[in-house]
Amino acid sequence: MNQPVRTALVTGGASGMGEATAHRLAREGNRVAVVDIDGDGARRVVAAIEAGGGTAVAVKADISDSAQIASALAIVRKALGPVTILVNNAAVENFCPILEIGEDNWDRIMAVNLKGVFLLTQAVLPDMLTAGWGRVVNISAYGAQIGATEMAHYTASKGGVIAMTRSLAVELGAQGITVNSVSPGFIDTPMARRAIEGSKFEVPAEQLVAGYPIPRLGRPEEIAAAVCFLASADAGYITGQVLGVNGGAAM
Fold it and tell me: Computed over its alpha carbons, how large is the radius of gyration of the chain?
C-alpha cells in the first residue's frame, strides 16, 4: 500500500547521522527539510537529495533561538507543507572535567541539546495535531545511559532528552503522535572523528570498541535506519522507547 507523502524536518542535517537520516527519509519518499547552523553544508545535502530525484529544502538556523526556529519553519512550510516527521538530531558536545565546567559551557550545551529539542518540538506540534498524525524521533546518547568521563554536561542534556521523550509520549499518544528516542553508541561521524583525533578518550577508539559485543564503530546509516523505522507508519504502536544502536555497548 502506498504511503502518503510527508514532510520531515531533520536538525543537524548537514553532516553525520543527520545527513544520513535526511537521505534515507528522502529515499523513502518524504519531502525533507535539512536544518543546520551550517547553511552551506545543508545546501550540499539538499543538492545531493535533489540529484537523486528527491524533494528537499535547506535552511540555516540555530535551534537554540526561538526566533530562528520560527523563521525556519515558515520557510519549510511554504516550500514543503506542514511538518509531520521531526528528527531532533542537532547537538554540540564538549569534554571537560566537572570542576572546570563553566556556566557558559553548561548553558550552551543545554541550550542546543535540550532546549533546542523542546523549542522545535513545541513549534512543530501544531502541524501534527492538525494532521492527527506525527512522529518525533529524538537523538539521545548511550553516555546518558551508562555515563561518560568529562561529559557530565553533555550526558545530562541527553538524559533530559530521554526524559522529555517519555513525557511527550504519554502526553501525545492519544493524538496520534509517537515520540521515541534513538540512542547512538560510538558512531563514525565528523564529531566523533574530531574527538578521536583530539585524544579525548582514555584509550584509543579501536581499543574502546574492541570490547563491544559488535566490536566496531557504528555507521551513520545504521542510525538513519533506526530513525526512519520509528518515523514510519509501521511503528505506529511504538512510543516512549529508547532504541540503543550501539553494538551492544549499553547492555
Answer: 17
pLDDT, tens digit (0-9, with 9 covering 90-100), for 140-159: 999 999 999 999 999 999 99
DSSP assignment letter at 188: -
Helix 116-131 × helix 66-80 angle, to 10°: 30
Whole-number Cα distances in Å, 225 to 137, 187, 220? 12, 13, 9
Calpha distance 92→224 (Å, rounded): 19
Catalytic position from the list 142, 154, 212, 237 = 154
Fold of the domain built from segment(s) 7-189+220-244: Rossmann fold (3.40.50)
Nearest-angstrom CA–CA distance, 242 and 142: 10
In the chain, the percentage of residues whose pLDDT exceeds 70 is 97
Q: Which of 10, 4, 1 is nearest to 227 (CA)?
A: 10
Which pTM was predicted? 0.95
Instruction: Say how far apart CA 143 and CA 156 lie, in whole Å.
Output: 9
pLDDT digits (tens, 9 = 90+) for 90-107: 999 999 999 999 999 999
From CA 139, how far away is CA 30, in angstroms rounded? 19
The band of 1, judged by pLDDT with boundaries at 50, 70 and 90, is: very low
Q: Catalytic: 154? A: yes
Cell of 234: 509501521
Domain boundaries, the chain: 7-189+220-244
- Provide the residue count of the chain: 251
